[in-house]
What we know:
Blueprint: H1 12-19, H2 25-34, H3 47-52, H4 57-70, E1 76-85, H5 96-99, E2 105-114, E3 117-119, H6 129-132, E4 135-141, H7 148-163, H8 171-186
Antiparallel strand pairs: 1-2, 1-4, 2-3
Amino acid sequence: xxxxxxxxxxxxxxxxxxxxxxxxxxxxxxxxxxxxxxxxxxxxxxxxxxxxxxxxxxxxxxxxxxxxxxxxxxxxxxxxxxxxxxxxxxxxxxxxxxxxxxxxxxxxxxxxxxxxxxxxxxxxxxxxxxxxxxxxxxxxxxxxxxxxxxxxxxxxxxxxxxxxxxxxxxxxxxxxxxxxxxxxxxx
Length: 187
C-alpha cells in the first residue's frame, strides 16, 4: 500500500486537514472515507469536503489527490473510470434500471491508484472489487477536471454508448434515470 506520509505542507487545504487533527495520509484517508456521501456546493472547491463533511467519489478523491500533490506524495493518481453500473455492483441505486428494462448504465466513477493499486475511498463500504470486472475504460485526470471535464466526458460517453445499443431512449431520458440512481445512492 502506501507509506504513512505526513501532512507537512503549509497550504490552506492541508492546514484545514491538520486542524481536524489529521497529521498523516492514513488518518486523512480514513477521515474522508468516513464522511457521508453527498454533493458539495462547489465541485472544484476541495476545502468543502472537509468543511461540509461530505463528498462524492469525485470530490473526496480529488481532495485527496490535491492534498497528495501539495504534500509531494509520490505515485498517487486520480482515476476516472467508466463502469457498467447495475444493481449487482451498485445495489443502492434502487430499482431504477429494472423499471426501464435497462441492464446497466455507463457511470463515471473516481478513485485513486496508489503505486498502481486501485483504492476506492468513497465510503466505508466501498470496495473496488465490486466494479472491477465492469470497468469499461480508465483515464487519469487532475483534480480540477472533476467538474466540467468529467461531466462532459461522461455525457459524451453515454451519447456514444446509446448509438451502439438497441435502447429506445434519448440521452435526456437516460441522464434523468442516471440522476435518479445517484439520488438513491445519497439517501
